[in-house]
């Protein structure tokens, strides 16, 4: 072909186009081969992992995205990376993502996929522990409370009702995780099946085989699946299964050689792994704050790494049990709002002495990233804030329970009225005259977990599930008997994770079974978010009426409200802070509708609650709402101020000392 003095050599063009096409195809094939070459496997002969064919050892730390606000995810992950960790370990709590059957939450603070992508962008690998049970000192060990609607369900077993629910959940969560597997270009290198199953009574291998089959179905055959159990032969025996790589966990002070010999009994070849090396320990209300010495952590970590083992530090940062998410142990002991864990990063993400000690140990074995470590976040003491009583719970029932009560001859549990967290008010009338103190009893310890009792608005005292199962009350026949029952967190470990809440058995008055109940499930979250619609306050005298001897130490549960403004003219505000409750007893606190969690300074050891700065605003006053359940420090007559205080340092390790409020009362230890 020839036009206006130039010629096109068609065979040459074809050759060039062919070469370009071949080059493009080769490049694509090379790219595909590079993706397919991303492998993470076990080399049983060399007793190690192979990452892309090269020997690899992970040094990871546990972080619970559900205990750290999304606002701070990057800050915490970067601090973990700068400590020398090359991986993180996370749980996925089922109940956090499916609070109601079939209703899923995967946005904002629930966006686990975003969290994992963030870790990936920072160059951190991920050890994934998606349950379905996680323990983690989390409500019901991560299992959704609505599973208990099947009253005879056997959790963590081959029970068909349980397996059907698990199968559906795995069909939601695991496909979300599959693109994030290492061989698919993501950060996830290994995946745990169940969690410390050997510590559970069921020892149901059919259940483990079911899980193994479903994990393989959703994730494929290339990913390494593993189990974790305490370094005890019996525990590993019930928790391990052929085809799942068995690992162990143990803390400082353990005989490391002996602990790994337990793993070797079940995995004669392959990498040594401590999946939970404890940097601290959990707390309970009414017990001293747990600490583990930095020297002990550093020394044991050095020995583990000297063994050539893989290790995960549990926890590297603990975080916070916001709202109602804390778990409990048995005999019933609920965990506090703080999950600080005495970890290398504090609850507020601050660098600690333990952080730098761990970093110094790691740098002896691996290259630690160079550059500045993100500093601890600044804190600000906003000072005291006055609160006023808004209304008692009784006076607020039309707001807290707009659909009205459920009527039942006998009490119904939280589950039966589809109230999974928080509070339910149970109301009936006294069938007889109780002018003299008359025993109100829960003979089968049927109050789960704590009931605040009043008659015609007069406080009578407290029943709880452990020691206080009888309370003397007074009132006339026909008077209104109210019990505000608090769910203080479900058992997360052991035989009794099927932890029903509310009045789970009948109450008796002078040996007569009480009947004809009105049951009010309280929607405190919606109510607190719409405080402007409460239409003023009602300071009726009922709040200050005296009850029976000893009950004068109590006031009826009530809401208190105040606000504060962030100071202007100071740069970089708002900042993180901590709220404390001088003179208050026990309750729940919200700031700008965000449920910070439970306070209980009368019991301790935690005295302050962490307030992350992202929930504070500078454009308008910040609203504080407090539900005090037992006794507020203020009164109408004589006038006494009611204040909370924002401080710049946390107190989570106060000496456990009971206030005078409890000295004349029966022993109420849980």
Strand order of the largest sheet: 6-7-8-9-10-11-12-13
User: From the alpha-carbon coordinates, what is the Rg to the nearest angstrom?
Assistant: 29 Å
Low-confidence stretches: 1-8, 28-33, 537-543, 658-670
What's the overall geometry? globular
Give me the number of helical elements.
12
SS-based class: alpha+beta
Question: N- to C-terminal separation?
Answer: 96 Å
**Number of strand segments:** 36
What report would you give on this structure?
- This protein is α+β, with helices and mostly antiparallel strands.
- 20% of the residues lie in helices and 25% in strands.
- It is built from twelve helices and 36 strands.
- The strands form nine sheets. An eight-stranded parallel β-barrel has the order 6-7-8-9-10-11-12-13, surrounded by five helices. The chain has a six-stranded antiparallel sheet with strand order 18-29-19-25-22-23, with no helix packed on it. Strands 17-30-35-32-33 form a five-stranded antiparallel sheet.
- The longest helix has 27 residues, at 10-36.
Topology:
Blueprint: E1 2-3, E2 6-7, H1 10-36, E3 40-43, E4 48-51, E5 54-56, E6 59-63, H2 73-82, E7 87-91, H3 94-97, H4 112-121, E8 125-129, H5 160-177, E9 188-192, H6 205-219, E10 224-230, H7 233-239, E11 245-249, H8 256-266, E12 273-278, H9 294-306, E13 310-317, E14 328-329, E15 333-334, H10 353-362, E16 383-386, E17 388-392, H11 397-400, E18 406-408, E19 423-429, E20 434-441, E21 447-448, E22 450-455, E23 458-464, E24 470-475, E25 480-486, E26 502-503, E27 508-509, E28 512-513, E29 517-521, H12 524-529, E30 558-564, E31 577-580, E32 587-591, E33 594-599, E34 608-611, E35 622-628, E36 643-647
Parallel strand pairs: 6-7, 6-13, 7-8, 8-9, 9-10, 10-11, 11-12, 12-13
Antiparallel strand pairs: 1-2, 3-4, 4-5, 14-15, 16-36, 17-30, 18-29, 19-25, 19-29, 20-24, 20-27, 21-26, 22-23, 22-25, 27-28, 30-35, 31-34, 31-36, 32-33, 32-35
Helix pairs in contact: 5-6, 9-10
């Amino acid at each position: 072909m020839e036009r206006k003095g130039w010629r096109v050599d068609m065979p040459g063009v074809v050759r060039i186009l062919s070469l370009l096409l071949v080059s493009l195809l080769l490049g694509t094939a090379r790219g595909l081969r590079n993706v397919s070459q991303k492998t993470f496997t076990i080399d049983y002969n060399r007793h190690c992992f192979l990452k892309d064919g090269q020997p690899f050892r992970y040094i990871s730390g546990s972080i619970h995205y559900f205990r750290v606000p999304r606002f701070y995810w990057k800050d915490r992950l970067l601090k973990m990376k700068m400590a020398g960790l090359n991986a993180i370990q996370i749980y996925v709590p089922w109940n956090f993502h499916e609070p109601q059957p079939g209703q899923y939450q995967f946005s904002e603070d629930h966006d686990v996929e975003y969290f994992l992508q963030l870790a990936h962008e920072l160059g951190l690998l991920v050890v994934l522990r998606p349950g379905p049970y996680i323990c983690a000192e989390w409500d019901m060990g991560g299992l959704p409370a609505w599973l208990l609607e099947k009253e005879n369900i056997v959790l963590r077993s081959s029970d068909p009702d349980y397996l059907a629910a698990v199968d559906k959940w795995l069909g939601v969560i695991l496909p979300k995780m599959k693109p994030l597997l290492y061989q698919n270009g993501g950060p996830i290198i290994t995946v745990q099946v169940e969690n410390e199953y050997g510590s559970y009574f069921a020892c149901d291998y059919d259940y483990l085989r079911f899980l193994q089959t479903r994990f393989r179905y959703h994730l494929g055959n290339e990913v390494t699946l593993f189990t974790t159990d305490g370094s005890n032969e019996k525990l590993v025996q019930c928790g391990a299964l052929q085809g799942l790589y068995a690992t162990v966990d143990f803390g400082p002070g353990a005989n490391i050689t002996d602990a790994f010999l337990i793993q070797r009994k079940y995995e004669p070849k392959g990498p040594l792994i401590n999946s939970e090396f404890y940097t601290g320990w959990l707390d309970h209300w009414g017990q001293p704050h747990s600490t583990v010495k930095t020297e002990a952590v550093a020394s044991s970590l050095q020995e583990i790494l000297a063994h050539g083992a893989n290790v995960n530090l549990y926890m590297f940062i603990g975080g916070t049990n916001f709202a109602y998410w804390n778990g409990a142990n048995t005999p019933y002991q609920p965990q506090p709002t703080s999950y600080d864990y005495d970890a290398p990063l504090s609850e507020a993400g601050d660098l600690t002495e333990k952080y730098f000690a761990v970093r110094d140990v790691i740098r002896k074995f691996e290259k630690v990233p160079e550059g500045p470590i993100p500093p601890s976040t600044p804190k600000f003491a906003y000072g005291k804030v006055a609160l006023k009583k808004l209304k008692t719970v009784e006076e607020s029932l039309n707001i807290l329970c707009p659909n009205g009560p459920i009527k039942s001859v006998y009490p119904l549990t939280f589950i039966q009225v589809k109230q999974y967290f928080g509070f339910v008010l149970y109301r009936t009338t006294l069938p007889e005259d109780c002018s003299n103190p008359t025993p109100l009893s829960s003979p089968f310890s049927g109050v789960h977990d704590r009931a605040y009792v009043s008659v015609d608005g007069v406080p009578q005292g407290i029943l709880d599930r452990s020691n206080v199962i009888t309370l003397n009350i007074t009132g006339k026949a026909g008077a209104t008997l109210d019990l505000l029952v608090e769910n203080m967190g479900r058992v997360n470990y052991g035989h009794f994770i099927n932890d029903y809440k509310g009045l789970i058995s009948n109450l008796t008055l002078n040996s007569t079974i009480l009947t004809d109940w009105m049951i009010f499930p309280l929607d405190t979250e919606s109510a607190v978010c719409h405080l402007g619609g409460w239409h003023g306050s009602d300071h009726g005298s009922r709040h200050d009426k005296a009850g029976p001897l000893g009950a004068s130490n109590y006031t009826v549960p009530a809401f208190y409200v105040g606000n504060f403004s962030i100071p202007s003219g100071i740069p970089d505000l708002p900042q993180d802070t901590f709220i404390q409750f001088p003179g208050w007893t026990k309750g729940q606190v919200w700031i700008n509708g965000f449920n910070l969690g439970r306070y209980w300074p009368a019991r301790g050891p935690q005295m302050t609650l962490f307030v992350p700065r992202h929930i504070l605003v500078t454009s308008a006053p910040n609203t504080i709402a407090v539900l005090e359940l037992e006794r507020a420090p203020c009164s109408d007559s004589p006038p006494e101020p009611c204040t909370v205080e924002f401080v710049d340092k946390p107190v989570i390790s106060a000496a456990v000392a009971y206030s005078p409020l409890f000295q004349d009362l029966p022993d109420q230890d849980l």
